[in-house]
Design brief:
Immunoglobulin-like, 4-stranded antiparallel β-sheet, 4 domains, 254 residues
Length: 254
């Protein structure tokens, strides 16, 4: 008589006197009585097992289909499911765990968010835990004393730094006004006169929201020209150099 059998390609079945795992037709003779044999014709179907890779990325940790939570990248974990043919389906995990740790450093009146390679920054006021409108650059110069933090985005992850206490200093408070800015107001083109030739002067320009709009380091110069293409408003120029540290306001008119 005829029979049918189905196995997976990682299994065997005893037919025709041996373990078989190839699809085909097999004949077996079975003695049903001392004087009579019965021939069984078996059609064997072999279904395929399957494999796949599950590519995942997550922030800090990831819980996979095997029920395990992974806290670091992994490309060796495997889990076996059943495919549509009823055979093993082996899934290999390809997991990338991304992390970002936000911190703040301060140099003078400037707060700088770390790391510098992040894709987004948002400075917040810790007193009411609200974002500061327009403060989305890596560097930030608050216009008033308070506590501030930064939310950093990187590789799809976000982290909020600890709050830092910041004390604002009035423009040129206690500092001799050595630097002159002219013309002020300006249409965007102006010059800094350092009052003397100074080597290695660092200049930062911030808008009223505290966002850094220009940063330069000059060589041995006294007169430094600038041409800003920015919206009209009040800007703050910080000058650091050998024996000099001043902050000046300049008005840019449209």
């Amino acid at each position: 008589h005829n029979a049918a059998a189905t196995i997976c390609d990682n299994q065997t079945i005893f037919l025709q006197g041996a373990n078989q795992n190839m699809a085909g037709v097999y004949r077996d003779t079975i003695s049903t009585s001392p004087m009579r044999d019965s021939v069984v014709i078996t059609t064997l179907v072999v279904n395929a097992t399957s494999s796949s890779t599950d590519v995942q990325s997550a922030c800090n940790s990831f819980t996979w289909i095997d029920g395990n939570t992974y806290h670091s990248s992994n490309n060796t974990a495997m889990h076996t499911l059943m495919n549509a043919a009823g055979c093993d389906s082996v899934v290999t995990l390809d997991l990338t765990i991304n992390t970002v740790t936000a911190s703040i450093s301060q140099a003078g009146l400037t707060l700088t968010a770390n790391p510098g390679s992040a894709s987004s920054y948002q400075w917040i006021n810790c007193i009411n835990n609200t974002p500061i409108n327009g403060a989305i650059a890596q560097s930030f110069m608050p216009q008033s004393s308070g506590t501030y933090a930064v939310i950093i985005g990187q590789n799809g992850c976000t982290d909020t730094s600890s709050c830092i206490t910041y004390t604002a200093v009035g423009l040129n408070s206690g500092i001799e006004n050595q630097v002159k800015i002219y013309p002020n107001p300006s249409m965007g083109a102006f010059s800094l006169d350092l009052g003397a030739t100074i080597q290695g002067t660092e200049i930062q320009i911030y808008d009223e929201k505290g966002s850094l709009v220009r940063q330069e380091r000059q060589g041995q110069r006294q007169i430094i020209p600038f041409a800003l293409e920015v919206a009209g408003g009040k800007y703050f120029v910080i000058i650091r150099g050998s024996g000099i540290y001043e902050i000046h306001a300049i008005i840019i008119e449209e």
